[in-house]
Amino acid sequence: MNEIIKNKVCDEEELHKERIKTALEAMPSEENVREMAERFKALSEASRLRILLALSGGELCVEHITEAVGGLQSAVSHQLKTLRLNKIVKCRRDGKKVLYSVSDEHVLTMISVAKEHLNCNE
Asked: If DSSP codes are grouped into helix, strand and coil, which group holds residue 27?
């Protein structure tokens, strides 16, 4: 009986070693992990999330984003700057207006999954 328990412990230890090896191989660099954390932080603030939800329909100028999310234009501009610095939104000039859009469709996918998860009872 002791031999069976000993073999089971050895098998579990080998399995855990293999899982650790797999985790280490898949781990991004420390710099990339920090960058990911910063982007998640930027996404986690409610007013920035509302801006991204507004931009999910396409590009908008600050005036229209402000109208869509409510609030003050100066606050929206401040949040757009944070999103831009974190490479989550991009902007382009069209005459006198600056139009903003989501820079990476993956961000919209993450938001969509988060919205779906709100209705998940598990």
From this structure: coil
